[in-house]
Specification:
Blueprint lengths: L2 H6 L2 E6 L3 H10 L7 E4 L9 H4 L17 E2 L12 E2 L21 H9 L7 H11 E4 L3 H7 L15 E4 L11 H7 L15 E4 L13 H6 L8 E4 L3 E8 L1 H4 L3 E10 L2 E5 L1 E7 L2 H11 L2 E2 L1 H6 L6 E2 L11 E8 L13 H12 L15 E5 L2 H4 L3 H6 L9 H9 L6 E6 L5 H4 L15 E8 L7 E3 L10 E3 L6 H18 L17 H7 L7 H11 L1 E2 L27 E2 L1 E3 L14 H19 L2
Parallel strand pairs: 1-2, 1-12, 2-8, 5-6, 10-22, 12-23, 13-14
Antiparallel strand pairs: 3-4, 7-16, 9-10, 10-11, 15-18, 15-21, 16-17, 17-18, 19-20
Helix pairs in contact: 2-20, 4-5, 5-20, 17-19
Bound molecules: flavin-adenine dinucleotide.
């Protein structure tokens, strides 16, 4: 179909962004053959691309404009003014096509909090139903269970016939079986499923792969099998520049979407939705497109010469991400971590394993294997009155009671740790993510990251020009709040303790024999970490998990909301936002599953409203 045909045709729904949430919606809304949907996606379709499909090749996707929007943050004051790479997927499937494939979950109590913030229906019971609808949990094989244990995953909490595949990693490193007993030796139980409220412990990390080790993402899971539906049109390489909004005075009450403008092959086109336009551009581009269309802070828009249609200063605010600090340690010979695959013969063997459908080490990300653990660390350090007093000094709004509750509880996680037989170089990975995974020294490494699950700090993303081609200004404001900084310092000290505990300690190269020097040189730290060094490492080595949320928050308007619980944009008729940006408060874990569930729930909300 030509773009002229598309322009002249009528669509019930126009979805801006064929990413993680956008494709869920496209798939579910077109289940009704009478519903016509157009998806406008700036990237291209790469369903057969091995760099996307073979999980361990994901490191080649960053800083390449074929796959990545290649955004950068502003200098981050609490991270020694470092500028941090902000990759976002620019292909059909969006960021689910370029993410790290890890699927550690959020818990029931966190979703409950969304409802308490003024969002009826956004609770655990409802989200669990949509998690299950979106996913298939592939139970561990005997080989996987022997390596990691079964992790007490409770099958009743997971889907069995949804499009997105969840599979345990397939490990090869000699140290793989050591994670679970090491955590147990530290008194960390794993007797509950990680989705259960208050679950602390250690579990083998589920991955977004099918049972043959192929990446499972929005395009392969939700789009590939329905691409031929006559009522679905997906236009790739279509760069949306703004929504055309009729102002309230013209539209009679609320502003109204009159069309969507996009550029294809350097020519501008306009399409119209008869029912609704749905913005699914992700946490950076959805607020950007709202602002370019005149929905945002009037003072910012006026400064940039953009006509104000709806004055809402909350657009682009409330940005949250999961900051994390990596720690690596040199492993004994023969551990066979990710660095082994730099040897051509090892890589060839691993490629053969993958091509033959046996999975193998390339099928679980460069990490090969991984394990995660959630901890309540603040409970212990909360004994210091100074520290407790600092909590809430600059966060006295609707969210802080919940966050404070988490910090004072010993049954909710404030930190999450991921472990893998791989080296990282956070000093380079901050500037360019592709360099995070290329530790300069050959060798074998064991790596861990401490991830802050519920940051207090809030940042923002805003347009700096009325020109749609200019990237937004992204200021995540990482570790602005002292609690965030303190928790990560404690996380570094805890990771060191894990590496010193048996049986994992048996795989760590003796640090007294001089070979640990390599780490000392590249990380500019002595091999023994005290509090001062941990603080330095947090400032110099913290990177995000690339989980930005919250910039079009689902909250009551007077509490900083951009969308209501039906995900409709305040002040505009016929416009919703459906993507990660609507999350009011960040949850623990890796958030792609939450985005799939948001897409599923939004599809049902829309179907019900229009009786589809
Ligand atoms: C490097 C990285 C690692 C991650 N690791 C993990 C992980 O291991 N596990 C996990 O669960 N999550 C992970 N995530 C996060 C997760 O993948 C995202 O939160 C989720 O995919 C976001 O979904 P979304 O629908 O909000 O946005 P996206 O999936 O990013 O979709 C937005 C879509 O809109 C398109 N778009 C934007 N602007 C325009 C425009 N103007 N015109 C047309 N199209 C436009 C984009 O090209 C994109 O396709 C990671 C993310 C990144 C970037």
């Amino acid at each position: 179909m030509s773009v002229q045909d598309i322009e002249s045709k009528s669509y019930d729904f126009v979805i801006i962004g064929g990413g993680t949430a956008g494709l869920v919606l496209a798939s579910r809304l077109t289940e009704n053959p009478d519903t016509h949907v157009l998806v406008l996606e700036a990237g291209t379709s790469k369903l057969d691309d091995p760099k996307i499909n073979i999980p361990a090749l994901f490191t080649q996707l960053y800083e390449d404009p074929e796959y990545d929007w290649c955004f950068k943050s502003t200098p981050q004051h609490a991270l020694n003014n470092r500028i941090i790479a902000q990759p976002r997927g620019k292909v059909l499937g969006g960021s689910s096509a370029i993410n790290f494939l890890m699927a550690s979950p959020a818990t029931a109590s966190e979703f409950q909090h969304w409802e308490e913030l003024g969002n009826p229906g956004w609770n655990w019971e409802s989200m669990l139903q949509y998690y299950r609808k979106s996913e298939t949990f592939n139970p561990p094989t005997a080989e996987q269970a022997a390596l990691y244990g079964t992790g007490n995953y409770d099958r009743s909490l997971y889907g069995s016939d949804g499009p997105v595949q969840l599979t345990m990693p397939i490990g090869t490193a000699a140290s793989d079986a050591a994670w679970q007993p090491t955590l147990q030796a530290l008194g960390i139980p794993s007797d509950k499923d990680p989705r259960v409220a208050g679950s602390l412990g250690g579990w083998p990390m589920l991955k977004y792969t099918d049972s043959t080790g192929k990446r499972s993402y929005a395009a392969s899971a939700y789009y590939a099998s329905i691409a031929g539906r006559p009522n679905l049109t997906v236009l790739t390489s279509a760069y949306v520049t703004k929504m055309l909004l009729d102002p309230p005075e013209k539209a009679g009450g609320l502003a109204k979407v009159a069309g969507v403008s996009f550029i294809l092959d350097k020519v501008e086109h306009i399409v119209r939705a008869t029912k609704e336009t749905i913005l699914a551009g992700g946490s950076y581009m959805s607020p950007k497109l709202l602002e370019l269309s005149g929905v945002g802070s009037s003072s910012l828009l006026q400064k940039l010469g953009i006509d104000v249609v709806v004055d809402n200063a909350a657009v682009g605010e409330n940005l949250q991400d999961h900051p994390m600090v990596p720690l690596i340690i040199e492993a004994q010979d023969g551990v066979m971590g990710a660095e082994s695959f730099r040897q051509p013969e090892v890589l060839q063997w691993a490629l053969n394993e993958w091509m033959s459908g046996r999975g193998g080490p390339l099928s679980s990300g460069i990490n090969g294997t991984s394990f995660f653990s959630t901890q309540s660390i603040a409970h212990h350090i909360g004994q210091s009155p100074d520290f407790m007093q600092s909590i809430g000094t600059n966060r006295d709004d609707e969210h802080s009671p919940f966050l404070r509750k988490l910090l004072s509880s010993d049954s909710e996680a404030d930190l999450q740790f991921s472990f893998a037989p791989a080296g990282f170089d956070p000093y380079k990975g901050g500037e360019a993510l592709s360099r995070l995974f290329t530790h300069p020294d050959p060798g074998n490494y064991l790596g861990s990251v401490a991830v802050l699950t519920h940051p207090f700090s809030r940042g923002s993303v805003h347009v700096t020009s009325s020109d749609p081609q200019i990237s937004p200004s992204i200021d995540p404001n990482y570790l602005d709040h002292p609690v965030d900084f303190e928790l990560l310092v404690q996380g570094v000290l805890f990771m060191q303790k894990v590496f010193e505990t048996k049986p994992l300690a048996d795989y760590v190269r003796d640090r007294e024999d001089g070979s640990g020097k390599k780490i000392q040189e590249s990380f500019k730290i002595p091999t023994r970490i005290d509090r001062g060094i941990a603080e330095k490492l947090v400032r110099e080595g913290t990177i995000p998990s690339w989980h930005p949320v919250g910039t079009c928050a689902m909250l009551p308007r007077e509490k900083g909301g951009v969308v209501n619980p039906q995900l409709k944009v305040y002040g505009v008729d016929g416009l919703r936002v459906v993507d990660a940006s609507i999350m009011p408060v960040l949850l623990r874990g890796n958030i792609a599953s939450v985005v799939y569930a948001i897409g599923e729930k939004a599809a049902d909300i829309i179907k019900e409203e229009y009786n589809l």
